[in-house]
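Exam revision sheet. Question 4 asks you to relate a sequence to its structure. Input first:
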Amino acid sequence: MTYFENVSKIKYEGPKSKNSLAFKFYNPEEKIGDRTMEEWLRFGVAYWHTFTYDGTDPFGSGNMIRPWNHLTGMDLAKARVEAAFELFDKLNAPFFCFHDVDIAPEGTTLRETNKNLDEIVGMIEDYMKTSKTKLLWNTANMFSNPRFVHGAATSCNADVFAFSAAKVKKGLEVAKRLGAENYVFWGGREGYESLLNTDMGLEQDNLARFFHMAVDYAKEIGFDGQFLIEPKPKEPTKHQYDFDVATGIAFLQKYNLDQYFKFNIEANHATLAGHTFEHELRVARINGMLGSVDANQGDPLLGWDTDEFPTDLYSTTLAMYEIIKNGGLGKGGLNFDAKVRRGSFEPEDLFRAHITGMDSFAVGLKVAHKLIEDKVLDDFIAKRYRSFNEGIGKDIVEGKANFKTLEDYALDIKEFHNESGRVEELRALLNQYLLTTF
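Answer key, C-alpha cells:
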C-alpha cells in the first residue's frame, strides 16, 4: 500500500525552485569541506511526532489526517512501519529514532508488551534490509504511563525501578538487533515536585545505579552504541535532575559515568533552561561530550516545549558552527524532534516540514563552514585574548603565577587598556555571511 501517493521522491532543485516538495538548499551530495552535506548533517526522522502524533492539545482532540487512522492495535503499528519507510525513502532520510511505545502498543503485562515489540522490531528489521535508513537511536518511554507518576529510575517505588530497568534492558537488546548507533536516556519524570516529600540524595544515587546497570548490560550483550543523556529543565516535573548540560556533566562526573555518556542536545530544551541552543552545544563541545542533536525550535512567545521544525537561520548557523568545530557528530545526528503545527494536518505537510528543517540546517552548514574557513570569529577572539599570550598573561596560563606575583605586578598598574567587544559588528558580519553565501 502507498500512504503518500501525492508525493514523489524529494529532489534538490536549488534556491530558485517554487516547488514546495523539493529541497532548495539541502543537496545531500554537495561537498562542504571534507565531506558531503549528508555526512555532516546525518538527518533523522522522529517516529513519535511524525507517525503517532494526532494533533491533540490541551484544548482539542486529534485532527491530523493520516491514511492509517482507521486502524488500531498491532494493525495500526504495522501500517505505521510501512508508512515510515515510504517516508524515509521519499525523503532520502539517513536515520530515524523511536521510543518503544511509538512502534508497538503496550500489553497488560511487560511480557505481552515485549511480544508486541518483538513482532514490530522484526518487521522493521526486514524493511531495513532493503532501505538505506538506519536507526540513529532508540529509547524507552518511561513517562507516559501512570506507573511513572513519581519517576522511573528515581521513583520512590522499587517495583517501578525494577520495571523501568526491564524496559531499558529490552531497549538495549532492540538497539543491538537493529544496529542503533546510540541509545538515549531522557528523564521525563526523573525529578521532583517538592522537597517536602523527596529524598533527593537517594533518588540521584538510584539514577546513577540505574545508569551503571545499563552500562554493564550493554557490555554484556556487546552493544557498542554511544549512550546519550538528553537534558531538559522542566516539563513534566518542576525540578528535573538533567536540567542542562552543565548539570548533567556534574552528575556524570560525581558518579564516575562521564566516560560512558555524551549529550543529546535539544534546541527547545536549551531555551527552556534559559540558554541559547549554541550555548548548550558549546558547553558539551569544550568538555568533549557533544554526541547528538534533537533539531527543533520553540516559540519565544510561548513558555513551553512547542517542538517546532527549525527555521531560524541564525540558530542553525551557530549550531552548525559548534558541530563543525566538534569535527561533526560522530555516531550522532540531527534528529527532527519536531511536529507539524496543528493547522498543518494533511499527510503531505509531514514532507514540507522536514524539507524546511533540512534546508534550514543546510543553510546553517554552508554559512558556518564559510565563517570558519575565513576565520572570522577565530581571528577576532584570538586578538581579544592576546594578553594571555605574553607577559603576565602567559604566566597565568602556564601556571607560573600566584597571588603574590600577581599582586607584585598589579600594585603599580596605572591604566587599564580594555578594547571594545564589538558584538554589533560581529552580528553584522554574520548577517553579511547569511545574505551573501548563496
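Marking note for examiners. The chain has a mean pLDDT of 97.
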